[in-house]
Batch of 2 targets.
Target 1
Amino acid sequence: MTIFRKVFFASFYLLLLTCYASRGQTVDRTEVHDIIQTLTNKLTEVYPFPEIAEKYERAILKNESQHQYEGLSEDSLASKLTRDLRAVHKDVHLRVMKNDETFKRLTTPEENRGRDHSEEMRMIKQNYGFQRVEVDGKTSTAYIDIPGPFWGNQEAFEMAAAAMNMAAYSKYVILDIRHNPGGTGHMGRFIASYFYSAGNEKYYLNGFYKDRSKDEQEWTYSYVPGKRNPNAKVFILVGPGTGSASEGLAYAMQKLGRATIVGDTTAGAGIAGTFVPLKRNLIAFVPFKMVVAPNSNEGWEGVGVIPDVLVGDKDALAVARELIEKDSNAKPQ
């Protein structure tokens, strides 16, 4: 066999293997149908706005009937479903994705799951969402950098308590959540609670479901470990990277008149959700609880949290420090 023929056959076999590999990743029509049925059924069951859920279902089923989801790989199918859903209504929480680890966790019985060491290592590496605390005694300012996400385990709350106690004697407190994508709303309420005296709990946010009988009032906590700082002047730094539960902290503190929000408009992800397994390692994050201000139907979904001080091209931290300097130099009235 000549070298030319060897190279030809080697290339031919490699091409065949590539084709088979690609074909192996393609989701067949039956599986596509199952994925769409699970997704649309879940949206109909829990999405807090039934009329929007109905629009989602109609659009996706119409596209399926037109064979738009056939012949796609898992990743391509996930991307197209997400685009098609957001074309109907831009809910930045609602999305379909491929995630082998999460799919396995969701589909494994709880008694067989064991510990998720990868998630545990991720939390440790990210210091449970809290990066640093800097206290400036000269200006009596504490800066707390919280890139998140907001976790809800014991270690995360211990980390939060440690950070808040370091800031307990500062006149000014800056919370930096510009790059915090969200997480559990419990953490935002926990942090907010340090800025109120015990016995002065506040109606923080309200969550409502498709079934309005399940509505939840969210209040600041009557107990937090360590020392509170109810007299601090609070500045919260936000931006497009501020999402979901971290937006909730900024939104609630703004509505309560307890903090000055500095930065740029946030992501606008105001409907809490959960992961749902579909098929072929595809999962969906399906929103089920709309979070709004107390005694209203107004939240930050789709519009984001609008800062009290928009910074434009300036650095939000520098602007906050300028505001603090101006306040500290102001003569008492």
Target 2
Amino acid sequence: MPWGLLKYGLASKYPARRDIPGPRELKKSYEIVIIGAGGHGLSTAYHLARYHGITDVAVLDKGYVGGGNTARNTAVIRSNYISPEAIEFYKASVEMFENLSNELGYNQMYSQRGQLTLAHSDASVRAFRLRAEINKHLGVRSEMVDRKQIREIVPCLNMDKKMRFPIQAGLWHRDGGTARHDAAAWGYAMRAAQMGVEIHQRTEVTGIHVDKGKVVAVQTARGTVRCNHAVQAVAGMSSEVARMAGIRLPIRSYPLQAMVTQPVKPFLDPLVSSAELHAYVSQTARGEVVIGGGSDPYELYSTRSTLDLKENLIAHVLEMFPFMGELKLLRQWAGITDMTPDYSPILGTSPVKNYWLDAGWGTWGFKATPISGKCMAESLANEKTARLIQPFGLERFRRFKLFNEAGATAASH
């Protein structure tokens, strides 16, 4: 290994591997155009190429690969949701993450270390108990834990009964973990490109052409391309892009902020979250402490961080870990979340024929990256919505069959 590194360092030309091809001209038409080169769009392209043999695909993005919400989330992976439909869906995604490094030949730095969600009230304890039983019934490892067990899981957690919201119990989710968000995007991009999928960065979509109720072309800043199918997977900009196709989505977009501290020695292995405190905490492999929580209280298409959210998050985190008051912050950032009324995604068909939706993820888009791509690819290939995502169709809002997942997060509710 040392001689190999020395040879590489002294070489006149670096034999660096290019993960995806450089810029190229757009073709006049494609079988499928995917709008959005984030995790979901690239996962869809990969599954189309590998498992359905469909490689006449163009992935378009106004920025760069994984540069939107994929690069701005806190990389949490879990399946401890509330409704049976959501639990089954995210359970399948966790199972795919477990083998994703081998699947793509690209290290995802996947770490399954569990998630502890804290209950500070009798109402939360009752809700967690029901949630744990539903999870276990569907094969997800979740269980109620008492104060003694919480001390064993996270010894450094503040368990003082005189704190503002004393900890009464917790929901321990053994399947919870993290992975590298950029690795997921680049892994899917690299493998999709190797199979013939075209990835066009710096290619903004400016219009959707619809003829007789069917999508026929996508207009970009580099020209118009015809297509038989189009998919939008653009996270916080979902409403704006859908509007180009004449579709009105029940989505509101809010900034969601997070931050990390300076690196410190490992002290926190599980993920810890609190719905009452609107905060969650985890520690990275580099030792940085990742802090996230509630979204901004107003709709905005902005990724600027704010002092107000920083102060609120810090105050809430210090209730759980008072000693962290000595740490310094390294950076703070924001993403744009696309929130639906029931905090569940919108997947599948749209009122425009052959125009497919991958939207409404709110605060949990990253953890669904593998399974959403698999299901969307299956839907496109068969021209029929895949079974696993049928409950999350847009028509559920017309039929009033919603899935209330607001209580399944410590952020943005």
